[in-house]
């Protein structure tokens, strides 16, 4: 398959986006936060840290497996194939999706990504009501929503997340997309390293470690969001804490947008790279 002019345009836009990852410079506040975080974790024994992050990784693996094996996800896979057949009636499998054009694939991916951003918006609004159940369920709910959106974007671009390599890759894409901006370039390089040394479309041969203390900045931002919601939940209009609901909805929407944008850039890159080499 040869590249079209549109393929070249998307490839150039991905390269420009990648340059932005590498050119990002942390501000003074971020540097201060990093120093504080380093200092805080230096006081925690290494074996305790390892056990904690192993359990966190295990929780993400388990959640990923539950999502990709659910009936809801199987139904979504079938909807992707049905939509794809509207463009090309010869599409039969997930791998066949790579025969669609980049714009057709983006259209399908955006349908699912946009839907999950709306889910995040409503989840944030619910969290903004300030109830204990709402606040306590926010982090797990956001993990489910965004892991699922990454899986569906991967499927749209022809990657079957039920295989070990693609399952691990989807998890690493989710992890990379939730990292602080200053660390996302390194995470992109790690994904490229896995892609370059891949010698099988099925097995994964690389590091299975995902989280470390640098990743906790994202969950900590969610904790700050919960604090803001708690502070503003008493200010109500027509019986609703509209300010805290707006804070929750806005933060969750922006997080999901960041995750889906990163995920689609990665899978578009893989699609175009494969198409170029064929």
TrEMBL record:
<protein>
    <submittedName>
        <fullName>ABC transporter substrate-binding protein</fullName>
    </submittedName>
</protein>
<dbReference type="InterPro" id="IPR024787">
    <property type="entry name" value="EcsC"/>
</dbReference>
<dbReference type="Pfam" id="PF12787">
    <property type="entry name" value="EcsC"/>
</dbReference>
